[in-house]
Every structure is written in C-alpha cells, then in structure tokens.
Design a protein that fits this description.
Elements: E1 2-3, E2 12-13, H1 57-64, E3 74-80, H2 87-98, E4 104-108, H3 122-126, H4 132-135, E5 136-138, E6 145-147, H5 156-159, H6 161-171, E7 177-181, H7 189-195, E8 201-205, H8 213-225, E9 230-233, H9 239-247
Parallel strand pairs: 3-7, 3-8, 4-6, 4-7, 8-9
Antiparallel strand pairs: 1-2, 5-6
Helix pairs in contact: 1-2, 7-8
C-alpha cells in the first residue's frame, strides 16, 4: 500500500496497482439473525470462486485488516468514482475472497444492480417490511451470502438511519465481514453521508490517475461524508503491458 502524490490528502493505492429519524414501522429486533442454514460441506472440499485477475484482493484484504475491530464484523463500503471503476466488480471479488475463510455478507445498495427490485432486500428490512430470512440468500457458487437492495428506494436509508443501525448491528452478530457497494457511476451524496460513517473502511473503485481531479474530489467528498479509513482500488496492469514496459 502506498500513498498517491496529490495535493489533497492522498488516496491510498493498492500495491501492485492492482440523527433523529422520523416515525417508522416496527423494525426487526436486533437479535442474532439465522436467515440461511450453515453449509454442511466442509471448507476444504468447496471449489473456490475464480479470483478476478484485474485486482489484487490479497493486498486489499491485508490493508483492510490493519484497522482494529473488536467483537463485531468489519464493515466495508465500496463506492464508484466513475463507471470504469467497476465498484460492483471490486465489491463482489473482495466479498468472494473473504467468504473462503470468514462468514461474509455482500450488501448491494444499487436497485439496478445484482439485487432484484422485485424481491425484498435491505430497504425492506430497514423499513420493517421484511425479516432477515426474507432478504438473505446464499450465492450458489461460494459460501458468500447476499443481501439485495430491495424493492424500495435507497433514500430510505437516509430517512431511517436508526433502522439501518438496527439492521447492521443484528447482521454483524452472524457475519465477520459486511461488504456494501453503493449504486451508480458516482456515489449518491446523501446515501454516502449516511452509510460511510457507519463503515470501518471505504474503498473507492477507480482507474483514474492519482492526480486526477475527479478522483481527488471523490476522495475529499468521502472524507467529508465521514469515511474513516479511506483507500482507492484500481485494476492491475495486464501482464503483457508489464512486459512491454519492461522491454521498452
């Protein structure tokens, strides 16, 4: 991990480039959720997901584990800077790698992403309109558990922050890692301001150069939103590109 040389507080780059809420419906009790039965297959015979070669997830995990967290799950938010940053790919790859050795939940905050808007998800959970068993499913290719965005608008997270707190607190009694991904090509400012302070780390997915002003502004906006441990994940250079550079 190295600091990028920018004028603003520099984003961390991976080595190897790789409030009072309004009245709301009754919400789920913050008891230990048991929405999905444990996989009876032993860990050593489960075929792991292929790792996305574009990103150095091992280095990213090591960077995230530097922060101290005691007696609860680590919360990570992955947010985009531009569409080419592939925040969804970073979040999915990171969560898949983590799920091999730890109980991991991937939370999709994008109504247009992997979570279907026809099925209940986080927004329904926060609104008190669904239970944990209604919203959490298992990924068929790994041990990863998935929580979709749900049928409501993500704006409910900003209107009902207490409901979000209750949901996260209950989920971290079951999981060791909670990886969230924000929607869109750029983070929604209101949602970022609500979610970021509740995370242990925020990862900006971007392939922009460190000095690019769009990246610098996104970094500063995440800081202003309350991100505590902030870093940038970018794609690794392809092997043939490395060889060409070396030859030159």
């Amino acid at each position: 991990v190295r600091a990028a040389p920018v004028e603003a507080p520099a984003p961390w780059l991976l080595a190897q480039a790789p409030a009072a809420a309004s009245a709301a419906p009754v919400r789920p009790e913050p008891a230990r959720p048991d929405p999905v039965r444990q996989d009876p297959v032993r860990q050593d015979v489960v075929r792991p997901d292929p790792v996305d070669p574009r990103y150095d997830f091992g280095n990213l995990v090591a960077r995230l584990e530097r922060g101290r967290v005691e007696d609860r799950a680590r919360r990570v938010l992955v947010a985009p800077v531009e569409s080419a940053g592939n925040a969804g790919d970073v979040a999915r790859g990171l969560a898949g790698v983590l799920s091999r050795t730890a109980k991991t939940l991937l939370v999709d905050l994008d109504p247009n992403g992997a979570g279907s808007t026809t099925q209940p998800g986080l927004t329904d959970l926060v609104a008190g309109e669904a239970s944990f068993s209604d919203v959490i499913r298992r990924d068929g290719a790994s041990r990863l558990h998935l929580l979709g965005a749900g049928r409501g608008k993500t704006a409910i997270l900003t209107r009902e922050p207490e409901g979000l707190d209750v949901s996260l607190s209950a989920l971290e009694k079951t999981y060791e890692w909670i990886v969230c991904v924000l929607p869109g090509e750029e983070p929604d400012g209101a949602v970022m301001a609500t979610v970021a302070p509740r995370m242990d780390s925020v990862v900006l997915a971007s392939n922009l150069e460190p000095a690019n002003q769009d990246l610098v502004r996104a970094y500063e906006a995440a800081q202003a939103a309350g991100a505590r441990d902030l870093m940038v994940a970018r794609e690794q250079a392809a092997p043939e590109q490395d060889s060409a550079s070396a030859a030159a």
